[in-house]
Amino acid sequence: MALDEREFDKLGDAELRHLEDALGDIDPDECEIAVSGGVLSLTLKDGAKIVINTHRAAREIWMAAQAGERRAWHFGHDASDGRWRVGGASGGDELRATVARVMTERLGRAIDVG
Residue 68: its pLDDT value, please? Predict the structure, then answer.
């Protein structure tokens, strides 16, 4: 069942807050974190940028990484486990694991956003 706008806003905002909190302990010299209007922006020490935002019309969370190569993901909500996945319930890459993987690759140390 598709999320209505209100439920999407609630779940999407909660996910962005979770990511912001989980990344909040990273040294600001390694990663600058900014949140504004449903957009979480990460600027890494090497100049790489990661932008994660809610996209209400599509009912997805979008992530773009400009870290060497440019990559983009669209994550839909999987109601079966509450996670955000590429393809939603059809089960592709998971948002938190993708953020952790990209951050780990860029910072050269394990990052957990569990």
Answer: 67
